[in-house]
Design brief:
By secondary structure, this protein is α/β, with parallel strands linked by helices. It contains ten helices and 16 strands. The strands form three sheets. Strands 3, 5, 6, 7, 8, 15 and 16 form a seven-stranded mixed β-sheet that branches. A six-stranded parallel β-sheet has the order 11-10-9-12-13-14, sandwiched between helices.
């Protein structure tokens, strides 16, 4: 089968789109025929060297977000049958014609989504869910400020926060204003025209997906006792105490119960995927370059031709 493998860390030159033997599921595992795979910043970060820091061993099969059908199950898996349409996040190997998923990594695909749109959901939606609900404990009536509101994670966070009946302030560049307003934000901030900390004040929660200087300045937008959660930085406990807030980094983990709740919101029409670019699996290098460029609205996905 075709798969994407790196044998060393580096730029796109180390990415090999090659033939390998199809894996076989063992205890509590499912073999998924991948129809579409989602592309995420973690993929090129692993390629660039983060894989070593994450404890991964070379060679590494890239890709962690899939939508497809169950091809084969191990004998102890009772939740699925062959042919079931599923989606979810896996440890590795998603940029391939077939991938191994643990039983708790995948759930039935939302009935209202095709595979392309389904592949754009799991990692971003679970990251947003675990950030704003599990860590920051966002509740109805609170105010949340979301940086990078037009991105793959930020756009889903906006919709999840609105589904919780909160007041949402979304930030992006002016060219993405219509898109972000269409997600349902209550206020839009164009970071190219103003310093967001001058206009965003006393929010309960900040969800930062941008990092860098944006992350540092976001502390100023929170009220005392607020919560700053980030998907890209490592917050300082000392700085959080200085501002009288709590801060944490979210590390997305597979969670079948939460992904099932996300699927319900999708089928109710309260959460939508936003696919910006569809490329064939063979163009995985180009997909990683686009993701690393950081200018994509919504999600990049790879269509698998198996």
């Amino acid at each position: 089968m075709k798969a994407t493998v790196i044998n060393e860390y580096g730029n796109e030159d180390v990415v090999n789109y090659t033939d390998i033997e199809r894996p076989e599921p063992t205890a509590n595992e499912v073999l998924v025929k991948v129809h579409v795979a989602g592309v995420n910043p973690v993929d090129w970060k692993i390629r660039n060297g983060a894989g070593e820091r994450l404890g991964l061993k070379l060679p590494i099969m890239l890709g962690g977000e899939i939508a497809g059908t169950v091809e084969k199950i191990s004998g102890d898996v009772k939740d699925f049958k062959e042919g079931d349409a599923v989606y979810g996040i896996i440890t590795s190997g998603g940029f391939a014609e077939y991938a191994i998923a643990k039983k708790g990594d995948i759930v039935p695909k939302p009935q209202s989504l095709d595979f392309q749109n389904a592949a754009a959901i799991p990692l971003g939606a679970l990251t947003a869910w675990q950030a704003i609900f599990d860590l920051a404990n966002l509740t109805s009536g609170q105010r949340i400020f979301i940086t990078g509101a037009s991105g793959g994670v930020g756009s889903l966070a906006v919709q999840l926060a609105k589904a919780k009946d909160t007041y949402v302030i979304g930030m992006a560049s002016g060219r993405n204003e219509d898109f972000v307003r269409g997600l349902g934000v209550d206020e839009f901030v164009d970071y190219t025209k103003q310093n967001f900390e001058d206009v965003v004040k006393d929010v309960d929660v900040v969800f930062d997906t941008v990092g860098g200087d944006t992350f540092k300045r976001a502390f100023q937008t929170l009220k005392k006792g607020g919560f700053l959660v980030t998907s890209v930085e490592f917050p300082s406990e000392e700085k959080a105490q200085e501002f009288g807030i709590k801060a944490a980094r979210v590390f997305c983990k597979p969670n079948a119960e939460e992904l099932t709740a996300i699927s319900k919101l999708i089928d109710e029409g309260r959460l939508k995927a936003h696919v910006s670019t569809v490329l064939p699996l063979a163009e995985v290098k180009k997909a990683l370059q686009l993701s690393e460029g950081g200018r994509t609205r919504g999600k990049i996905v790879l269509q698998v031709e198996a």
